[in-house]
Design a protein that fits this description.
The chain is an alpha+beta fold and about 160 residues long. Helices cover about 45% and strands about 15% of the residues. The model has no long low-confidence stretch (mean pLDDT about 90).
């Protein structure tokens, strides 16, 4: 599956989901001052090999802001939120603070946290910063294509 992110000129960017070269879905991604939310999902899921929103799309689910709860997917979503918060604060949060925030966020949403360590957070931050650098170079109207394969996550 290929994810094609298009930088928009207004309040949204777009993520097109391509299956076998055919457009399967197009998702509006509200701009948030950092890379698109779903690009953070891509980084988390492909780096940690976890099944979240992107993995669920790969497995054939239709995109929805109200997908049914799933333990691993919910844990991925909370981690994406933690990385967004880190991005909004300049990518400067300590691993300890991020792990603490992740636990608080999971507890507040009554979701099982993923078993992650400081090394996982560093690998994720590195990948997100790589994607950020690529995204910043892209002019409005242009795209960044990312490949997401079955072996990148564990079902």
């Amino acid at each position: 599956m290929q994810l094609i992110f298009t930088k928009g000129s207004g309040k949204h960017d777009t993520m097109d989901v391509m299956r076998d070269g055919v457009l399967a879905e197009s998702i509006a991604c509200p701009k948030q001052g950092i890379i698109p939310h779903d690009m953070v999902h891509y980084a988390v899921e492909s780096t940690l090999h976890k099944r979240g929103f992107i993995g669920r799309i790969l497995d054939g689910e239709r995109t929805s802001f109200q997908m049914a709860a799933e333990s691993e997917s919910d844990g991925v979503e909370r981690l994406v939120e933690v990385f967004q918060a880190d991005g909004w604060s300049g990518w400067s949060s300590s691993a300890t603070d991020m792990l603490d925030l992740y636990q608080v966020t999971c507890n507040a949403r009554q979701c099982e946290p993923l078993a992650i360590q400081a090394d996982d957070l560093e690998a994720l931050r590195k990948r997100i910063l790589e994607l950020t650098a690529q995204w910043q170079l892209i002019p409005v109207g242009s795209t960044l294509a990312l490949q997401f394969e079955r072996n990148q996550h564990v079902p």
